[in-house]
Amino acid sequence: MGFGHLSRMAVLRKILTDRGVSVDLRVKLDTTTELDWDGQMIPCDDWIKNWPKNNLIIVDSYRVGLDCLAGIRAQNLKLIYMDDFGRLDPPCDLIINANLGTESFLYKNADESLVGSSFVILQEGIRKSQKKVNHKDRLHKILISMGGSEVQPLFDSLKDFCDKHSKFEFKILAPWLSKESNPNSKNIEFISQLSAEKLAILMLESDLVLTAAGQTTHELAYLAVPFIAFAISKDQEPKVDFLLKCGLQSKRIQIASREFFEDLDQAISLLTSADARKNFGRQSLSLIDDRGAERIVDHILKLS
Q1: H or E element that contains 188
Q2: Domains and CATH numbers, the chain
Q3: Alpha-carbon distance 287 to 222, whole Å?
Q4: Residue in 131, 130, 120 with CA at minimum distance from that of residue 283
């Protein structure tokens, strides 16, 4: 869990480092002291209790509470807090909600806030990729992205869903899966983890993507790849609502709903034709540009 949080912090670290800033990226994990992230080792420790004494601290975590954030600010350190759905509204120098459809979010306790699609953070491998322009007449290749959250109890039903649609070729992206998870099925392949560059290729090769409404929706919209988003957790619901509002989706789809697979069937039927998928891709192109992370870094450097 938490791959989206880590990937966007890794993007900010690279841009800040390229601009000559020394950056210390830390992750709280209970199972290891180091994490290999895209070839770089990241220290893992309980930074929530023992946070490093840097000049400026960016916190991107659902584990952190107001006491930790208050402790950081009490030391007269600059504090930036990354939010997704209004979980906390702490006193801080800057609060960032870098998601589609959050332009109307209001934060009362931060000195400054950056909200909405202008600040969406994209991985470099996504930003440098081409956009999808070709859409096949026949809907055939479907990618399913489960995000970083483990939804193992759903897997039997998910495989049944794929088996029912034997005319489609499914690839299921779930970063936490083991290599032994591939089922004995002709039309399903599980993929455990990919670099951003390979992920972009996989997305562009797909005719349609069924995805948890996390960071992946930003990447798909930027690449103009047609997708159907569903909410796995509360923080993803505003994004699904935004897609409904702008007409890219006809129904709010939630993984906890009893009608989850029926809702997916209905949504897929609306994107069967190449024209429908082409129109979706064309409309999604206007949602996100590639400057979000740079805009955030510009604000960070003004604080430091």
Answers
A1: strand 188-191
A2: 3-122+290-303 (3.40.50.11190), 126-284 (3.40.50.2000)
A3: 7
A4: 131
Residue range 87-129, pLDDT digits in tens:
899 999 999 999 998 888 899 999 999 999 999 999 999 999 9
Q: Which helix (H) or strand (E) holds 160?
A: helix 155-164
For the chain, what is the mean pLDDT? 89
Burial class of 156 by CB neighbour count within 10 A (0 to 12, 13 to 18, 19+)? exposed
Q: How far apart are CA 11 and CA 196, in angstroms?
A: 11
Q: Taking the mean position of all CA atoms in its chain, how far away is CA 89?
A: 21
Where do we find the tokens 């591939």?
Answer: 182
Ordered alpha helix ranges (H), 47-86: 66-74
Instruction: Give the residue from 126, 123, 117 showing the smallest Cα distance to 14.
Output: 123
- Nearest Cα to 125, choosing from 41, 215, 36? 215
Q: Cβ distance 205 to 198 under 8 Å?
A: no
Expressed in angstroms, the distance from the first to the final Cα of the chain is: 31
Question: Residue 172, Cβ neighbours under 10 Å: how many?
Answer: 23
Q: What is the pLDDT of residue 49?
A: 81
3 state SS of 173: strand
Burial label, 123 (beta-carbon count in 10 A; 0-12, 13-18, 19+): buried
Token pair, residue 225, equals 């790849």
Residue-wise pLDDT for 189-221, tens only, equals 888 778 889 999 999 999 999 999 988 999 999
- What is the CB neighbour count within 10 angstroms for residue 229? 27
Contact residues for 117 (Cβ-Cβ < 8 A; gap 6+): 99, 100, 101, 103, 287, 288, 292
Q: What is the pTM of this model?
A: 0.90
Q: Which two tokens stand for residue 26?
A: 């830390």
DSSP 42: E
